[in-house]
Amino acid sequence: MAEMNGPDRNGFLCICIFTITFWNNTYTSAENGFKANYSKSGLDAVPKNLPAQMTDLDLSYNSISELQISDFSSLSKLRVLNLSHNLIRELDFSIFQYNKDLELLDLSHNKLQTLSCIPVTSLRHLDLSYNNFMDMPTCQAFGKMVKLEYLGLSARRIQKSDFRVLANLQLDTLFLGLEHLTESVPGSLPAFNTKKLRIALPENSEFVSLELNVTESLELSNIQGKQVSGLITFLSQPSKNGKLLNLTLNNIELSWLSLTAILQKVWESSIEYFNINYVNILIFEDTSQSLNYVDTSLKTLTIKHAVAVSEMFNQEDVYRTFSEMNIASLTISHSGILIMFCPLKPSDFTYLSFSHNSLTDKIFENCKNLALLETLILQNNQLKQLAKMSLMTSHMNSLKHLDLSQNLLQYEDNMNDCHWGKNMIKLNLASNQLSESVFRCLPANIQILHLQNNPISSIPKEITELTALEEINLASNKLASLPGCGQFRNLRFLNIEMNSVVSPSSEFYQTCQGIKQLKAGHNPFTCTCELRQFISLQKQGSMELVGWPDAYVCEYPDYLRGTLLKDFHVSEVVCNVSLLITIVIIVTVVLVATVSFLCIRFDVPWYLKMMWKWTQAKHRIRKSNPEDMLPNIEFHAFISYSEHDSEWVKNVLIPNLEKEDGSIRICQHERNFVAGKSIVENIIDCIEKSYKSIFVLSPYFVQSEWCHYELYFAHHKLFSENADSLILIVLEPIPAYIIPTRYHKLKALMAKRTYLEWPKEKSKHGLFWSNLRAAIYVKLSSNEEERAFSLI
Ligand SMILES: *[C@@H]1O[C@H](CO)[C@@H](O)[C@H](O)[C@H]1NC(C)=O
Fold this sequence. Notes:
The chain is an alpha/beta fold. The protein is elongated, with a radius of gyration of 55 Å.
């Protein structure tokens, strides 16, 4: 296979780096700089083509063995460079000559043997510890790095002169990793110009003699064997430890006797804070010798990860050593202690922490000598009965804060056996086995209450009010709805995330207005109308919803699962029943009004009436049989009218009824006049030969012509009131007063409105004629089809 030539190879590299950086998402742009994390990336060289704006570069845990000037020359903004845990053998500080802002350089845990020094004056933090230096790598140039705050060094051989150059510096922390010291120190270490001195002592060697003139804080690691007595000696020389305030011992193994000796020396010294981490205490000797608790500067003793290595020991002796201490603050954690005694006389403790041990409900039973205690931390022990814990506090009149989290606490209801210290304001009951009954066993003046991670499924209504309660944490319980705040009137902060809250109760809105912050995310919200009020809380801004919007997601109904509450919208109308009814009513009213208006405007009732009549007439014609016809009928209709209206009858009515096809025949007494008969006889003759009689009514007709027919009506039953052979057309409106009182028949007919009105609007004429034709049509013996009935 052909070897890649130069340019191709560069291109390949470029793509590789591009790919790696973007696939691993190594770059992060933070507001205070451009960071890249290449930790544990298997690199054997500093990556090329890093962005010039890079400020923080983490190259720790790789296999980089060499550094070159070109590696960093383009990174003029570089502030933090972590090269710890690599294989770098030599370092020339001049490679950082272009990194004028370099503040932090971590080269610890490499293979450095040589150093060429020029001052990198911007450095504040320089770690050269855990390398392969034979002598302390303290070059003259360090004296010029006046900004240096942290310096980490280690070597196999040390001399007093090594540290002369540091005299000019005002260090905050000096770390000396002396684990691998092969040659012991001649005399003692010089007085360092630093606030905090941290020394990892060499294993199995003499204690390094120290002068600590100005050091405030000393941290010593790896103390065992002969070093223990060296430490005791050091602590008994006030001239050497004169101003020490803070002493920390890590990773230490010693006998009980040595421990009490050290404690005794600390008691007599200027130390205020004493911390012991990872200590093995060998208890084989007599433990009866007690400490002399002289007046002391010590305020705080903290012991973490202590292990008692012993077959049997007098617990009373050992635990009394701690319980009788006359200091303010004592912590013994991660140490498996089973018991702690009540002090024998009124104690000075204001702070006690025994977290991560194996204490039982017997702790401080009936203890009256902790009256000054303000804070008691009993997190992660074997405590079981909440009632007993409350009794424990009943004599602790100063107790404000009690932490009982991560225990096995339960509370049996209906016992009325809870008596809490009267000043308790903060109680942590998180991660226990408490159910809702816990609300019947709470301190009356509690302000801050932690109940997260318990199996509480509701908040009982009938509990005493907790008027002082400002903050309650109910996260990770089993609550099904947002509770009301009736019993907690001054609640400001409610955390109820990770429960089973489907929607808030109406009580919540009524009683929880005082809440400023609500944390309710990660609940299975049901996104329906009920939730709208909750969502609007966010918009109103009166209550801050912590974690909004990402933590608030719909769980039900299924089609909305995963939707953010922020994006769930449902309109006001759908949810507000009274609004919905109002709108329906308004719409109906408007519709009715519009229809009515249109009806009146376009005379729809008239059309409907006419259509109805026309349909009836057509129906009648369809059903009628020619055999039903009276044999002496010759005409479809007889028309009677006043002389005054004759023009309309002759020019409008008759032409419109008698269409050209002659399907309708009209008997007109003038036209079909039979000589030798009187007018009345002629008229009656015409009526009798016609299927229908049409009367064209107008005021004139009523006054002048009606009389001709009255007689006829009086004698012929043919035209009774029910008879449908009479068709009245009202050509002009007839006021009732015009009709003479004796015309009862006409009045009755008019009152029954059984007449057709001649419409003034031309648009209605077509329907009028169709209707009239349909009304008078009948198959006469000599007659034809239903040609006349088309609507015009
Ligand atoms: C450098 O990285 C190592 C490993 O990630 C880390 O432990 C160390 O604290 C870092 N150094 C500084 C000064 O932050």
